[in-house]
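Write out a record, fold above all:
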Amino acid sequence: MKPKYTSLRGVRDILPDELKNWRRIEDRAREIFRRYNYREIETPIIEPAEMFIRTVGEETDIVRKEMYIFKDRGERLVALRPEGTAPVVRAFLENNLYVPGRVAKFYYIGDMFRYDRPQAGRQREFHQIGVEALGESSYVLDVEVIMLLLEFFEELGLVDAVLLLNSVGCPRCRLEYSKSLREFFSPYVDELCEDCNARLENNPLRILDCKVERCKKVIAKVPSILDYLCDDCRIHFENVRSVLDSLGIRYVLDTRLVRGLDYYTKTTFEVTVPGLGLSIGGGGRYDGLIKDLGGPDLPGIGFAIGMERLVNLLRDRGLLVEEEEVPDYFIIYDATLVTKAIILSKLLRNRGFIVEMSYMAKNLKSQLKEADRSKAKKSVIMREELLANNRVILKDMITGEQEEIELDKLEVSLIGERV
């Protein structure tokens, strides 16, 4: 039957069997983040559009092409959130969550929206797991955040995850580097795409994030930003690398890694796996963002993980649990015993079992077929003549073996069965 309505292009339903694995991944993230003392926060899906324009950057593809922006009935210009960092910082400031001398650590799990070309692992509505650590500029925090990201992937079985590392410096460094980029790209204007020609004048650093093939060939030749770091940024990055080296954490230095958002400063990083060609998570430091949103001049660092891309990768590698969850018990009953059947099902559910039952007045044979189709492990058969003597039939739906048992003994035997 063809449905009257279907989902819009770029969004999709996440069906129960798949969502079960999503929840397992999210639970794993929550446990790891708890160990690092991060607290969960949830921000609204809609936010003031100006907040993202100001922080993400007017020359980024997100703002110029991908943001869902509209006026609401109060004539306010709002946006569906395209990323999670700015909303967390806004909530941090609005709710006075800053405690001097302490790092404020948050994590979020939620959906984001960008009007991008739908592709494998990226939809127009997509989901992210992210962390934000606010209020500390030490390189030690950079290392810890990177360790947290890698630990999460390792616990999911991605032991071959590759860390890409760079520094984009501070605004002073980038000013000098931008001058160098304009000089470098000027002879190549005919080879750059239309967007990159516009970026060359307004924000040449954004060219490094271009995905157009002919631009990527030119980008491969650009000078390294590391040669333009000021002393403070250079020492900060050297300290990050030194500690990572001491810890035995391997990384690939990628001097063209700038990420897709303008608010990044100093350390930036991404994680990928061999053969994928795409990142499964990444982030960096953003020391000016809190001030840009009207708060004190506090530093911050964080990362985000794309759930769709991660789930696809784990599935392709056979790292997802594919075991089907089936009922532990199916209650079969005479039509006159419906109330007692409901009471028994409630008792079993209260003890943690998955319980199913027939909801129509069917004969016992039909109910047994229904129990078989449900793939229930066991069925409890309640018949009038047996229940009059406080007895039921317990049937193993896998072996076919069955036995009469006193109802009281059945209840007692179930107390320690659920693990």
